[in-house]
Amino acid sequence: MGATVVGWSPLDELVCESVPVTADNHTALCVLGTGLIGGSLLRAAAAAGYTGWGYNRSAPGVAAAQKAGFDVSDDLAAVLGRAAETDALIVVAVPMPAVNPMLDAIAQYAPQCPLTDVVSVKSPVAAAVRRYGLQERYVGGHPMAGTAESGWQATDPGLFRGAAWAVGVDPGTDPHAWTRVARLALDCASVVVPVTASEHDRAVARISHLPHVLAEALAVAGARGGDLALGLAAGSFRDGTRVAATAPDLVRAICEPNSDALLAVLDETLAALTEAREALSAHTSLDELTTAGHAARQRYESARRWEITDIEPGAPGWLEKLQDAGRTGGVITRLDTGSERN
């Protein structure tokens, strides 16, 4: 495995060669769910040359996508039938509570298609995929991008540019399906972070799901201060509560399926807050928390990624090598242009 430092930090532009567009007009993509993430994915893939179409159960959502010139339908059987005919890569882009009906339909109409998802938690999706017998060509995915908005009207083809896109490397992953999913992420201008489902869920509990819970609590605390408190609120309150603007049902769909991992990190956070409360009650210093928090933020701002190279999907030990690389900050920014695309 080769490695090249590419100087990437989460607060800066990705400093590496531009991500090559690898798709062509024969690359078929079927997106189930065309809200913020699924719709943005459909738009980004179309811009990269994919032949894409999608499903949305909402008539207004279908109408909005069609008005924008995209092939979106509320006929799930027909959408999946087309996927089966073209060996399309199917992307499940619905909240976790709606995943099972999508998998049930896929098992009925397109069970041989390569399959991925963009759901914010991976282990429950993988378990559901196994229940429907779809695991052989499934590769979990999660682009770390989004806004507080929802629906087709919020979609943005540039949403994934420079984002980290988690791509599953669990034991038994099919290398050809994995390559198609990784190529999709790269063609949407993201970088690929290889990660297992369980490690993904523990990580996002800390950096995504806990912030949602804390943002809700902070928003409630501010509102309880009445008009005066809200009238004085500025940057720290605005930034700390940004994701509380997300629709409540979506926040629940993000956090609740990852309850075990979220509980563990929530307990850690409550312990830190309890220590801070005890310090204030004793009229002593908050130095321990503020110093640790400042150092942690600086570590985030200065974090660097290195480029994963010379790992061929399907070669002996490829999954284990990618797992190790992902744990230590490795990202994939390009694939060999000679790699097979099914």
TrEMBL record:
Q: Which GO terms describe its molecular function?
A: NAD+ binding; prephenate dehydrogenase (NAD+) activity; prephenate dehydrogenase (NADP+) activity
The record's listing under InterPro entries reads: 6-PGluconate_DH-like_C_sf (IPR008927), NAD(P)-bd_dom_sf (IPR036291), PDH_C (IPR046825), PDH_N (IPR046826), Preph/Arog_dehydrog (IPR050812), Prephen_DH (IPR003099)
Start and end of every Prephenate/arogenate dehydrogenase domain? 27-311
Q: Name one GO biological process term.
A: tyrosine biosynthetic process
Keywords assigned by UniProt, alphabetized: Oxidoreductase
**TM segment ranges:** none
The answer to whether keyword Phosphoprotein applies is: no
* Top-level taxon of origin: Bacteria
What is this enzyme's EC? Answer: 1.3.1.12
Q: Does the keyword Lyase apply?
A: no
**What PROSITE patterns has UniProt attached to this entry?**
PDH_ADH (PS51176)
Q: Which family does it belong to?
A: Belongs to the prephenate/arogenate dehydrogenase family.
Which PANTHER family does the UniProt entry name for this protein? PREPHENATE DEHYDROGENASE, PREPHENATE DEHYDROGENASE [NADP(+)]
Name of the molecule in the record: Prephenate dehydrogenase
